[in-house]
Structures are given as C-alpha cells and as structure tokens.
Amino acid sequence: MLYFLVGPSGVGKDSVLDMIKRHDFDNKQPIIVAHRYITRTLRQNDENHIELTRTDFKSRKESGLFLFHWKSHGYRYGIGKEVLLWLEAGHDVIINGSRKYIHEARGIYPDLKIIWLTVSEEILRERLIQRGRESKKEIEARIARTLTLNPSKLRSSVIIYNNQSIDKTAEEVIHSIENARVYEEEVSNKGVGICV
Question: Comparing C-alpha atoms, which of 11, 179, 195, 39 is closest to residue 187?
Fold first, then answer.
C-alpha cells in the first residue's frame, strides 16, 4: 500500500520517517520511505532529499518521471515513478506528502492511504520557535492555517498525535501500517473461494 504522511511543518514528519528508515523489521517486509526530489538546497538537519535545479525538475516532470509533484513555499517537490516498482514488488511505501495535494494525489492514485500527523497547538508553537526559521508572525499564521484543516473528514486516513516521544510516534505509524497490511491479507484470503 502507498501512504501519504502529512501534517503541519514542525510536527515531526522528517523525524518519524528517519526512525522508520532505521527500524529493524526482523523478518517482516520493511516499509520503504520514498525520497523526494526538491528544488531546495540540502541543509544541515534537513530531510535526505535529492536536490534538483528548477531546470532539471522541469525536464523530469515533462518527461513523465514523477508520480506526484507539487509546489509549496516557493519550492517544487516530486515523487518519482520508481515508487510504483516498489509497490509492484510487494512493499508498503510511505511518502512525506503535502496536505494541499491530497485530493490531487488521490486522483492519480485512488488507493492512497493518509497518515495525518498532528500535535497540540502549544507543542507545535514551541517546536517552530526552536527551529528558528520563521518570525513570530509567520509561526502564528502557520498555526492558524493548521487549525482550519479537519483530517477526520478524509477517508482511509489515520490520525496520529505526536505529543509523545518521537520513538513512540514512529512505532505507532509502523504499527498502523503493519495492521493495515494484515487486514488487507485477511480480506484478500477471504475473497478466494471455489465456485460450484
């Protein structure tokens, strides 16, 4: 299954995805974290994305190499079509997605599952201040935008609160994906019958 991990900036998506990459799945099928192609310079403590120039991004987009692509905060983001090969090989794949792009992404891939990472307003404000990338006014505007979104109205979505340690939140995300995997296998097995 293909998962779109979304949530406001500062909620901890990058940290959760990093924990999933490091997780020991023992003999279970690992969850693949898809890398993003971004027209943003790679910075210290940034996600491990593939940096592209705007020209290179445009060229790849026009060549049909992206499954998903969107614009946000002056940058362009892409998810490569290699994700389809990983799904075809039987892997669950998780993407660091965009809340504004959910409906368009589902138009491209209708079975897309949403994992909505959220956090209390107080903790989000504290994390954004600690990060130090935005002014106080920009932080309050970001929080106000977050409060207008209602993830509970999205079908096939799971809401996870990251008010706890990042280890526990990552475990919760992994657990929800593994549970969905077991459920899908059970449904698939029940669907096999003999016609007389």
Answer: 179
* Token code pair at residue 156: 């096939």
Residue 40, in any domain of the structure: yes
Beta carbons of 21 and 166 less than 8 angstroms apart: no
- Per-residue pLDDT for 113 more than 80? yes
- Give residue 153's pLDDT: 55
Q: Give the domain CATH number at 114.
A: 3.40.50.300
In order of 24, 156, 179, 185, the CA distances from 175 in angstroms are 13, 16, 6, 15
Find the angle CA(63)-CA(65)-CA(67) to the nearest 5 degrees. 130
Containing 131, the helix (H) or strand (E) segment is: helix 121-131
Q: Kindly report the pTM of this predicted structure.
A: 0.79
pLDDT at 44 over 70: no
What tens digit of pLDDT does each residue of 120-142 get?
A: 778 778 877 877 777 888 888 77
pLDDT band at 180, cuts 50/70/90? confident
Q: Is residue 44 a contact partner of residue 134, using CB atoms and an 8 Å limit?
A: no
13-22 and 166-190 helices, crossing angle to 10°: 70
- Specify the number of domains making up the chain: 1
- Structure-token pair, residue 92: 């669950």
